[in-house]
Write a structure and sequence with these properties.
Length: 302
């Protein structure tokens, strides 16, 4: 079977794209390995009608809705290769050797986070340590917080977090990522800046208790934010020759079209930041409309 569109990725972008295309009576192969990046998160926030929903419940509701449309097929497998074939179709190879052919391909595979290597981080991640103030700042309001980042963007993050908690410590993890002027502005607000390397997060049962530094100092904190570096979750865009944006995402036009004809990107795979469920879902919807318009024009040109 040749599908109208294959979608790699079953996050909010891929699911919403499948929903729109299913309603447009397009045949869709939704390829999803069931390994969502936000699986560690206790709840998703900021999406009207779904504020506080768990990632598992969000996926359950989404798949119930998407699979009402008979032209959408859910392939619970992992895509390992994507390419153009000689006949002008896109071909996706999965981990079992299955080959899926489609006229159009949407990359909605998202990003993965590369966090600083700090002992004790992962048992606390998604419980008292997070990476997005808009997602989890409300739950940590007025608590003693730490923000750890090696990027100059930590200045912006600290200013944002000050609206949720005035008890902030900014850690640059051994990097000189803040200018003297920025440090002075933060300190004028009572925000402590610590530039020595962070060696460990200490806590129990998911709750942060102390941040430990290379000199042996321990600072009591109840929670905080660790800022990752984002990279593509899969390299298909690069392998297929897509142009990239300055921040590493796949460059697209207003309808999700990449620099490769017939290839689209949606959600985090495209814009990288901000990484929000509501942004990704909206981008998936818009990209699906772009796909449907292009399919329609091709069909009428025959």
């Amino acid at each position: 079977m040749i599908y109208d569109c294959a979608i790699i990725g079953g996050g909010p972008a891929g699911l919403n794209a499948a929903l729109v295309l299913g309603r447009a009576r397009r045949s869709v192969a939704l390829i999803d390995n069931n390994k969502p990046r936000n699986a560690v998160t206790h709840a998703s926030h900021g999406f009207i009608t779904r504020d506080g929903v768990t990632p598992g419940e969000f996926r359950r509701i989404a798949y119930d809705e998407v699979l009402r449309y008979p032209s959408v097929k859910h392939l619970q497998t992992e895509a390992v290769e994507a390419r153009n074939n000689a006949s002008g179709l896109f071909e996706v190879l999965d981990s079992s050797g299955l080959r899926i052919q489609a006229r159009k391909l949407i990359l909605a595979s998202g990003v993965k986070e590369i966090f600083p290597e700090i002992d004790g981080f992962y048992p606390l991640y998604g419980k008292s340590l997070f990476n997005c103030p808009y997602c989890d700042g409300w739950e940590l309001q007025d608590q003693p917080l730490v923000v750890v980042s090696e990027s100059p963007a930590v200045f912006h993050t600290a200013k944002l977090l000050f609206n949720w908690s005035k008890d902030l410590v900014v850690c640059t993890n051994g990097q000189s990522s803040l200018s003297d002027e920025q440090k002075n502005r933060l300190q004028a607000k009572g925000i402590v800046v610590m530039e020595q390397p962070v060696t460990a997060f200490v806590g129990h049962h998911g709750r942060l208790e102390h941040v430990r530094f290379a000199d042996g100092t321990e600072l009591p904190r109840a929670g905080g934010f660790v800022m990752p570096r984002f990279v593509p979750a899969v390299p298909f865009g690069e392998r297929l020759g897509c142009e990239r944006t300055e921040n590493g995402g796949i460059r697209t036009d207003a309808w999700g079209r990449t620099s490769i004809p017939g290839l689209y990107a949606a959600g985090d795979a495209s814009y990288f930041m901000p990484s929000q469920v509501v942004f990704a879902a909206a981008d998936g919807s818009r990209t699906a409309m772009g796909v449907n318009v292009d399919l329609t024009e091709e069909d009428f040109a025959k």
